[in-house]
Structures are given as structure tokens and as C-alpha cells.
Write a structure and sequence with these properties.
The chain is of the alpha/beta class. About 35% of the residues are buried. The protein is elongated, with a radius of gyration of 21 Å. α1 crosses α2, α2 (about 20-35) packs antiparallel against α4 and α6 runs parallel beside α7. The mean pLDDT is about 95. The chain contains eleven helices and nine strands. Bound molecules: glutamine. Glutamine (GLN) binds near residues 123, 124 and 182.
Amino acid sequence: MTYREATDWGSRVLAQAGVADAKLDAWLLLETVCKINRTFYYSHLEEELAVEQQPEYEIAVRKRAERIPLQYITGEQEFMGLNFKVNSNVLVPRQDTEALVEEALKICQPDMKLLDLGTGSGCIIISLMKNAHGMEAVGSDISKQALLVAKENAKLHEVEVEWIRSNLYENINGRFDLIVSNPPYIPQADILDLMPEVRDFEPVGALDGGLDGLDFYRRIIAQSKDYLNKDGYLYLEIGYNQGPAVTNMMCAAGYREVSVVKDLARHERVVKGRI
Ligand code: GLN
């Protein structure tokens, strides 16, 4: 099988399986398996794959055809210009979440203490630590397996983060200057309508926000005052239609300067405030 035949075959199989970006994914899997770049591909189209690579590529394509997310097969996802390791124990970092990181970076100062609730792959707290200096950071998650991924990513990016296994604030001590979180926020009934990649393969615990999707905001906001210093900040990622509800919760809890920030797709994506 030549490189050209490989991507042609891969695209066909993936398109038939209903994968949205069949051609792109077929290429990205070939890139990962054969460790080649675009330039190499176009200058070696009619060359054969190495013997051991062909079955490996076929396996990767078949997995993707089962609708396993591409990133769980390649094992990585780019976020804030950094490469993060991922596996099926963590949510794949989303570009939407970069809005939260960028907004938080505007107020990050040396000597601040940061807490990330539900850190997953660690993408939020690690990119904050990588882009601002002199801060102290704690990342927490209820999932032990997720924390293993986060730890690996912190090591890869050479940032110091204290990792704590915790159901939200349960095992967290002390006070912070900034709490960030991208909590699960999908209303339970909507989970069935998600794309198969998300619904069947991403950890449901990272998605399920309870009946109205707002369970975690209630809990995070209610207890936040016990964990924030005076004038501390709370920055939360939200679903596109949760801005009003989460804004109300934060105002009712005594936050000031509460506002909603949009992501690049012009969807409301972050609610922030100060206590
Ligand atoms: N904090 C991680 C992220 O933004 C995980 C979020 C989650 O699992 N809900 O990707």
C-alpha cells in the first residue's frame, strides 16, 4: 500500500462510518503512525508504507471508524499552542476553553495562588502556569486516572502544580486568589444527542451537569467564598446558553464585576466575577 492508497482507503472507510472530517482524520492517523509530515507525504505519494506500518495504520483507521475520538487514538491534542497527552479518562481539551485561559491570563500576577477544579488533562492550569510566572497552583479532580494524565502533562511542560484528588473542594485546604473551572455542564437529557465520539467515548463524569446542566455551578459558587481570598476571582467556563443563569448565581452569591465573555465563535463561554 502506498501513502496515497493509504489515505484514499482511510478516507473512504471513515466517510462510510459517518466521520465528519474523514479525509483530514485519515491523513492525521497516517501522520501519527508513520511519523511523517505533509511535505514528506506529497513527495512520497507513490512509495510504499513500511511493512509494519500498514497493519498499524489499518488498526488506527478501524478504531476511528468505530467513532473513537481521533485524539484518543493519536494520544494527543493541541491546546493554547501546547501539546497535551490525552486518553479516554479525560475530556479532550476544546478550543472553546482557550477563552477561559486567555481571560484568566489577563489578571494573573506573580504570587497569586490558583485552583483548578476538575482539571482533567490539566490543560487549563498548565497553560496558565506556562504563560504567567511566579504563581502557585493546585489542580484537583475526582478521578485518579485523570490526575495521572494531568501529572504527565505538567511534567512534559515543566510546570509545578500540586495535584489533589478531590470531589470539588472536599480535600482542598487554604485560600486562593483565582479559582478556575470548566465543570461538566451538559444537561443530562442532552447527552444522548451528542456526537457518538463524545457520547460513547468521552468520560460521562466530565460531561454530565445534572438535570439542568447547572449542578456544578451551584456547588462551586456556593462554597467558593470559603476558598477565595478577599478580592479573589472566580472564572467559569459555561455552555453557550448558561450565561444568564450562572451570572445570576454569582451575583446572588455576592460576586461583583460579574460579566460574560464570548469565545471566538461568538458564543458566551466564560462567566467571571470577583468576591
Ligand atoms: N478542565 C478540563 C478541560 O477543560 C476538563 C474539564 C472537564 O472534564 N469537564 O478540558
